[in-house]
Every structure is written in structure tokens, then in C-alpha cells.
Amino acid sequence: MTDSSRANFGSRLGVILATAGSAVGLGNVWRFPYMAGENGGAVFIITYLVCVFLLGIPCIVSEFIIGRHAQANTARAYANASGGNRFWTAVGAMGVITGFLITSYYAVISGWCLQYIYASAAGQLTGDAPAVKAYFGDFMSDPVMPLFWTVVFFAITHFIITRGVQGGIERASKLLMPLLFILLLVIVGASCMLPGAVEGVKFMLLPDASKLSSSLFLSALGQSFYSLSIAMGCLCTYASYFNRETNLVKSAVQISLIDTFVAILAGLMIFPAAFSAGIQPDAGPSLIFITLPTVFQQAFAAMPFVGTIVGFMFYCLLALAALTSLISLHEVSTAFFHEELHISRSRAAIIVTVGCCCIGCLCSLSLGSWEGLQLFGMPLFDLLDFVTGQIFLPIGGFLTCMFIAWRMDRQIVRDQFTNWGTVSKSLYTTYLYLMKYICPLAILVIFLHQFGVL
Ligand code: PHE
After folding, report:
1. Among residues 147, 153, 108, 148, which one has the least CA distance to residue 289?
2. Are 325 and 109 in contact (CB under 8 A)?
């Protein structure tokens, strides 16, 4: 499918905002702060920055190269770029499957954000810490509400996806991303003005070298890949909508900067408020749903109304960030079904929405009301998270480096990297070196480490 009628993003800004929308998600606002909190703050953040710039950006560029060259969905992109080789086609297909599975459970957490928007508006997140914790527990074990919000989230995503690449994805990103920035800045402002907030800022900026460890490095690397949407088919699929003028390296740098900036701001939103309220920010994954409502309440105890508004805005922000990421995840499979089954985009989108919605609902149930829904001793939700994040992601990332460095036609890689010689070639040699040795080695190390081999 390399026909000239294939959809494209309409503007440079559209490219940046849509792709940054994919990258900026729950990973930035939910995962990054708790990981930084658990790993000692500033040291983690510095290590994270090194990972983003040394390893993340080259990997983004690689996916861009494959996607823009092939002008097709991820499975076909790897097939085209390898001359139809079966193994590499399977690697591309693995990207699509990873995207499909993540879509399913990502929508579940996104749905929780909607519940919390409602709950904060309705003033239900008040009371002491145990009460807020119980609220989350009750919500999770409710058989209906989590499913309801998952379905609502899918419906919104479906609506946007069926409007197409320019009319749906690009338009939504141009509207949602600025909104997200405004909300973020307002909350950071409110949080940093609290008494004692400066301790939180210090926690983020002053490194404590004693916290440095191999597992910190590996967490930072894993987080950077997750946050930049690497190895899930999203970047490759979006790049297939880029035109010949899009400067791949510059775009990758800009997207990474936006993503990192949002992650840091998310930290600046959460840590100052947490320190001001005297709450340790190392609560792990439950940080934003269990600890944070209490943090906002206590931090703004003198002005309860402001606390409620800030809480409400926070969950709106989270839902927006999740939505732009979910759109990109959904698009990976939609493009695949659309092009491979030769059906219309809207039919393809229906297959994805219905399929992912069913899996998503099962995942959601596995966390609460249907605890028996376990495979290999883990609730379905955790299993999908584990398989996609810890197995498919590193394997996909590793093989993509191998593909670019050792298998794909060198001339094509160079042409794509330099936009057919129109942009500087000076970085090309460094890029190739990173792809050949440094990136695959780093990914291999994380992979083996998490299974206790290293
Ligand atoms: N990068 C997104 C985030 O930070 C998550 C995501 C992963 C989105 C993979 C798309 C693909 O939340």
C-alpha cells in the first residue's frame, strides 16, 4: 500500500503534536513521578535524561525511518523494508499485537481517570487517607463502574479515530495538547506556591549519588522507552503519515523534549504538594489514585475549594494525556486491519474497538470483582502489562535496532535519515554506531536483568 492517496498529516505542527500526544500519556503523569519517587528523585531524573537522549531518540528515529519508508502499517512496513522476509514481517506483526494488547488495558486505567474526574467534581474524594484508599478499593471491586468508564473511553477514542488521520487524530491533538499544557502549568503553579513546597523541588533537582544503583539505571531505561512509545508500533504507524519534508531527527528531538518536559512538570506538580502535605512520594503505582487526592486535600486545607478544583483539573489532565496516547495505540491496529483486510477505516476501527474493549473489560474484572481471572498466577491485567512492557517491548526494540543496523538497505536508511541528503549528515555515523552496538546492548542488559540473569 504505497498509493499516493494514503493519508498524511497536514502540517508540521500536526506531526509534532500528534506524535508528542502519543508519547505524553499516563507514563509521564502517573508512572514517571512514582518511579522517580521510589528511586530517590533527582538521580533517577538525571539517569532518565541520559537514557532519553542517548538511547530513546535514536530508537525513535529508527521507527520513523521504517514507517516513512514503507508508507504502511507496522506489519507491512517491516515486510516491505525487508523485501518480504518472514521473520522481519513477524517482528512488525509483534508490534501490532503489542499495540493491540496495550490498547486494551491502557483504556482501563484511562477509564479510572474519568471516574476520578467525576468523583472529584462530586466531592467524593474527601475524608482522611484511609477513606480515600477505601474509595479506590470499592471502585475497583465494583463489577460495573470500571467497565462502564472503559467503554466510555473507547467510545471517545473510536469517534476520533473514525474521523481519519487529519480530521480526527491531527485535529484532536491540536486541541487537546495545548489544553493539557495549560492545565499542567496551572497545577504546577498552585503546587509550587504551597508552604514547604521547596522541599519537593529540591527532591527533584538535588541528586543524592548514594541512591545510584543498577536497578535504578534499568528502571530509567525502561521508563524512557515506555514514555516515548517505543517498540509498540505507534511511532512507525504515525511515521507512515509523515511526508518527505519531515525532518526525522529534528522531530524525534522535539518530541522527546516535549515528553521529558511534561514528565518533569508532572513531578513538579506532585512532589511539592506531597512534601507540603508531609506525605512521602514513594507510594508506588497507587500514588495518583490513593495518595494524591489526600495530598491535594491536605496541601490546600486552608482553601478546600481550591483543593477540589486542583484535584478535578489533575484528573482531567490525566484523562487528556491518556486519550492522545490511546488514539495512537488504537491507530496501530486500525491501520493494520484497514490495509490488510482491505476494509474501510471505520470497519477496521470497529474491529479494534470491540476486540480491545472485550479484552479490556476482562482485564478490569480481573482486578476486582472476578479475581479468579488469572493466568500464570497473575490477574489478566498484570499479565498483559508484564508481557507487553517487559517482554514484547524489549524484544521489539532490540530487533528493530538489529533490523536498521544490519538488515535494512543502508542507502534507504541514509536517505531517510538525511531526507535524501537535504539535512546534515553529520549525525548519521553516530546514529548508526548507536544502533549497531549501544542500543541493542543496553536493551539486552535490561531484558536479562529483569529475569535475574544479570
Ligand atoms: N508513551 C505513553 C505514555 O507515556 C504510553 C504508550 C506506550 C503510548 C506505547 C503509546 C504506545 O503513557
Report:
1. 108
2. no
Strand 374-375, strand 378-379: pairing: antiparallel
- Express each pLDDT in 284-332 by its tens digit: 667 788 878 888 888 888 887 888 888 898 899 899 999 999 999 999 9
**Which ligand 1 atom is at minimum distance from the Cα of 24?**
4
Q: Shortest CA distance to 68 belongs to which of 226, 229, 232, 247?
A: 247
Ligand 1 mean position to 302 CA, how many Å?
37
By most ligand atoms within 8 Å of CB, the mutation choice from 325, 330, 331, 333 for ligand 1 is: 325
Cell (9 digits) for 63: 521507527
Within 24-128, where are the H helices?
26, 32-38, 42-51, 57-70, 74-81, 86-121
Residue 404 pLDDT more than 90? Answer: yes
Ligand 1 pocket mutation pick from 74, 96, 225, 232 by most atoms within 8 angstroms of CB? 232
Angstrom CA distances, 27 to 2, 15, 32, 380, 453, stand at 33, 20, 6, 20, 27
How far is Cα 228 from Cα 121, in angstroms, rounded to an integer?
31
Give the SS3 label for residue 213.
coil
- Condensed to tens digits (0 to 9), the pLDDT of residues 64-110 reads 999 999 999 999 999 999 999 999 999 999 999 999 999 998 999 99
> Which atom belonging to ligand 1 lies closest to the Cα atom of 322?
12
For residue 375, the cross-strand partners are: 378
**Ligand 1 atom at minimum distance from 234 CA:** 11
Task: Specify the 3-state DSSP secondary structure of 128.
Answer: coil
Ligand 1 residue neighbourhood (C-beta within 6 Å): 22-23, 25-28, 102, 226-227, 229, 232, 234, 325, 328-329
Measured in Å, residue 322 CA sits from the centre of ligand 1 at 8
Q: Which pLDDT value is given to residue 284?
A: 65
- Residues 282 and 34: their CA atoms lie apart, in Å, by 6
Pocket test for ligand 1, best of 59, 173, 223, 229 (most atoms within 8 A of CB): 229
Q: How far apart are CA 62 and CA 434, in angstroms?
A: 11
Residues 6+ apart with CB under 8 A from 179: 320
The answer to whether the pTM exceeds 0.70 is yes
The CA-based angle 156-159-165, given to 5 degrees, is 120
